[in-house]
């Protein structure tokens, strides 16, 4: 049986009544007062009107087009839902996030939907995803799918380029999702097409020992970009205030190993440098330098505390939730070293940051 089309809040028509058959006693979704949709039980059906008793034991007549049947089960790929409509999709995502271990990822065919858990979650082992055509929903699975399509849809003369687009509103988890995808592709690219799970596991365990490798430099650039381009907003304690386009290049000799990369940034929110609304912060790097810089460097740059600087004290916000500015400063220093900036260049960068504050 063909899956009915997406039905949101709409008036009844004969067509959608036939697409969404319901009977007395069925559980249906109806518009709610406290929530957008709530479950109810069908008590009677009359033409294009349905009498429904909701979870608060209240009885109401609802337009037939707004009485949408409940799906019989929760699934990790929502194309398998018997009824695909707004409350069905929302309920499926909500129920998956409540499962053991919290599963914020759900497929919709080859699209991955992520519900930000707002806390760190353990990623699966990359070796479990490599060359696996039946991966559970996860950004690793999307990255592996893109890699496999590049490899097996390609010839040596005409490789097939792939794109991974990560979109969503502020706080949806785009930054973290992009880092997870990058981690998989860079690990995958070390061994190329013939990677084995054992190789991937061994490499992942010793990854930080290869600080000058291309794959590690790509990973270590993230703290740098976040420090200079991310800030705390009212909705997100680590909001990217710029756009990022990243291109990974793989060899075309049939091995498909990681060969190079290109990162382009655009649309930086420059106005944040001089003004922030109440409850928001300037870019992370200023607070990181003030918290993590050595006693000697802060004395040299004549740095004190955030409250003393006009570019930082306008919003009366100096701390971001779940953010360790001192540890993140150390990550920035490590990242700068990994991408080839020696102590002299780092000193110049931080002196410019301090100069902006003054």
Automatic annotation (TrEMBL):
GO molecular function, one term: actin filament binding
Record flagged with keyword Signal: no
PROSITE patterns found in the cross-reference section: MYOSIN_MOTOR, SH3_LIKE
GO BP annotations listed: actin filament organization
Keyword Nucleotide-binding attached: yes
Alphabetical list of InterPro entries matching this protein: Kinesin_motor_dom_sf, Myosin_head_motor_dom-like, P-loop_NTPase, SH3_Myosin
Binding annotation for ATP: 168-175
Pfam family, one: Myosin_head
Domain spans labelled Myosin N-terminal SH3-like: 23-72
Annotated Gene Ontology cellular component terms: cytoplasm; membrane; myosin complex
Keywords: Actin-binding, ATP-binding, Motor protein, Myosin, Nucleotide-binding
The Myosin motor domain, residue ranges: 73-358
Protein family according to the UniProt entry: Belongs to the TRAFAC class myosin-kinesin ATPase superfamily. Myosin family.
Name of protein: Myosin motor domain-containing protein
């Amino acid at each position: 049986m063909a899956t009915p089309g997406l039905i949101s809040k709409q008036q009844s028509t004969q067509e959608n009544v036939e697409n969404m058959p319901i009977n007395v006693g069925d559980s249906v979704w109806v518009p709610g007062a406290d929530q957008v949709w709530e479950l109810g039980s069908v008590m009677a059906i009359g033409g294009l009107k349905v009498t429904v008793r909701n979870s608060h034991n209240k009885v109401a007549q609802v337009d037939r087009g707004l009485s949408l049947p409940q799906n019989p089960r929760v699934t990790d790929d929502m194309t398998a839902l018997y009824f695909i409509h707004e409350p069905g999709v929302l309920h499926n995502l909500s129920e998956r996030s409540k499962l053991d271990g919290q599963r914020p990822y759900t497929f919709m065919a080859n699209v991955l939907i992520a519900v930000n858990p707002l806390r760190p979650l353990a990623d699966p082992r990359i070796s479990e995803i490599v060359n696996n055509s039946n991966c559970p929903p996860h950004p690793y699975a999307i990255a592996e799918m893109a890699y496999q399509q590049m490899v097996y849809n390609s010839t040596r003369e005409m490789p097939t380029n792939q794109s991974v687009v990560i979109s969503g509103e502020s706080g949806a988890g785009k930054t973290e999702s992009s880092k997870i995808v990058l981690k998989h592709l860079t690990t995958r690219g070390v061994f190329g097409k013939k990677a084995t799970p054992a190789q991937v596991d061994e490499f992942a365990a010793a990854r930080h020992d290869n600080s000058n490798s291309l794959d590690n430099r790509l990973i270590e650039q993230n703290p740098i970009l976040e420090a200079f381009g991310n800030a705390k907003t009212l909705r997100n304690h680590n909001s990217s205030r710029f756009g990022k386009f990243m291109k990974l290049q793989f060899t075309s000799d049939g091995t498909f190993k990681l060969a190079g990369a290109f990162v382009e940034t655009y649309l930086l929110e420059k106005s944040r440098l001089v003004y922030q609304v109440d409850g928001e912060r300037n870019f992370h790097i200023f607070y990181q330098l003030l918290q993590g810089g050595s006693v000697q460097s802060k004395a040299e740059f004549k740095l004190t505390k955030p409250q003393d600087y006009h570019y930082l004290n306008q919003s009366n916000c100096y701390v971001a939730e779940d953010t360790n500015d001192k540890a993140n400063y150390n990550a920035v220093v490590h990242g700068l070293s990994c991408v080839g900036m020696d102590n002299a260049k780092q000193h110049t960068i931080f002196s410019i940051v301090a100069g902006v504050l003054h």
